[in-house]
Request: fold
Amino acid sequence: MNIVLIGPPGAGKGTQGRFLIKNHNYDGIITGEILRKMSGDGTELGDQIKDIIDAGNLVPDEMIDSMMTDHLANIEVNGAGLVFDGYPRTLAQAQTLDGLTTIDKAIYLKVNEEEIVKRILKRGQISGRADDQDESIIRTRMETYRTDTEPVLDHYKGQDKLVEIDGTKSIKDIYAEILSAIGS
Ligand code: AMP
Reply:
């Protein structure tokens, strides 16, 4: 079973994805983590990625598409399946992913903007991420989410794969809902 986790930044995708990886034997593909690693590698490409992330914008689709095509060609799946956190974030990425593998469920964690701003500012105190520490960058990320990522919800709704979960519930309740949605 391959699962996509969708939702605004700070909705809890990372937390829930980690549970699936640790407790249910999923392999995780976490684009933000891959990109943050690249952004610190001292190359020109790394510097470009860092500037994009720090500004709260999305890395261009062509770059993500080639990164994910490579990644999926090289990954060996022996466990329960793949869980994608932070990908796809645009309709074009969702279409590319459809050509790369089969997605069984898209779990949408719904959280309102004011709660997101509060959560990310708090996370920023621990994560140290520049993009988590500045309210205007967080609001840019929300705007990007609304414009570029929300259409992905309709994409999976049209395929009858979308499961909407109230992301303001407790972490435990959300996890239980995810498990029930994926039939575990
Ligand atoms: P995240 O850790 O998922 O919040 O991602 C941090 C940042 O990495 C995002 O704000 C984007 O700049 C970039 N990023 C992560 N995933 C993607 C993606 N699928 N497409 C484009 N940019 C991405």
Summary: The chain has a mean pLDDT of 96. The first helix runs from residue 13 to 24.
